[in-house]
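Page 47, continued from p. 46.
Same chain as before, 475 aa.
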Amino acid sequence: MARTTAVSLRHDPAAAPGKIFVLDTNVLMHDPTSVYRFQEHDVFLPMMTLEELDNHKKGMSEIARNARQVTRTLDEIVSSVDAAIDQGIQLYGPSRKLASGRLFLQTEAIAGDLPAGLPTTKVDNQILAVVFDLQGRHPERPVILVSKDINMRIKARLLGLQAQDYFNDKVLEDSDLLYTGMLELAPDFWETQGQDIESRKQDGRTRYRLKGPLCAQLLVNQFLFQEAERPLYAIVREISGPTAEIETLTDYTHLKNNVWGITARNREQNFAFNLLMNPEVDFVTLLGQAGTGKTLLTLAAGLTQVFEGKRYTEIIMTRVTVPVGEDIGFLPGTEEEKMGPWMGALEDNLEVLNKSEDDTGDWSRAATRDLIRNRIKIKSLNFMRGRTFLNKFLIIDEAQNLTPKQMKTLITRAGPGTKVICLGNIAQIDTPYLTEGSSGLTYVVDRFKGWKHAGHITLQRGERSRLADYAAEVL
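Result:
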């Protein structure tokens, strides 16, 4: 009882007037738990927001599911009080102590004084009218509109209202701060660390035990490199307090270590192969612009481990079906045939991997192609919920277009013995309301860093052609 009293005192306007956040519908549908994300501040939901939620709740799309989840959350909040709701509902209990503010719902008609040029029949304008009214009623408190709609925020600012994007779902404000999976060692690394380094051989590789302040910066499965007279390429295997153990890598740039006939062409590709071919790493994320080799490296590693190593039974490939241009309409055929047009990258890379160096002829190549295709299954994201994949090599292409919730749904499909690889370029996001900072790919890179069974690498250099490299740089 004392706790409730303390929370209510905090929201006494005379004591400490907090902010009032007015939520647009797209914020609720983007994050169904957004009403709990404003800490000690109050949240206000206009009636038109509830009306729009009602219009979007039908169907099986992600938007419809989110709308239904928001409705259930609001029902839980409203049902938690017996008194009148016009004084606001404490969120401390329903949010499981995440928020200490109140939720206000519009309980009366508001006649906002909007400029004559703005039609009151438009939903966005009715929400702006609510913000105007709240600003007049509470001049002592900042009233802020929160919307994912850029035009809505521009319109609000033109009218003299405060407006901002929804930031809670952003993992990073600047994508340049995203974990790259590697760290360059200082040129004097051997001189400064030489006395504190212990080395030993294990399974044909050299292991070094480091001590000192550098260990505090390291993460498990992070790659270390130094380009010098004595070049070092290593991966962090263990971290224990002030000490860390690093291990030298398999050199996949050498022809003897080729993967399905493919060798790494640069440092980052070598790092990627060391993750893709390691059976102890269950989850791999590869970021990079077009032409860095993400799909080719992953398919080569998958084919080698399916056919030669027998580690996985088959390769499953899926991707988000977000068109770049105009949608071409419904596609005929089975699930795999419908996904065919979206899998051009798969076909292009299989063509490279299926090139035969000898003169076995077209018949042999066709037989090999059919054998490979029998072990590669193309699946749609729409039918992933509820499935469990056992001993599969699961590739999620164009993962930057997934929301964090969709990413969680996919990764949790992995059963025993399954390896999941997420590929993407966060500079090419086609999903509405998704940004580099809030993409599901950014989310998992940040959340999985440092876990001993996960690894990440950002591929830096394009290996497609000089034309593609130059276009990526200047266009």
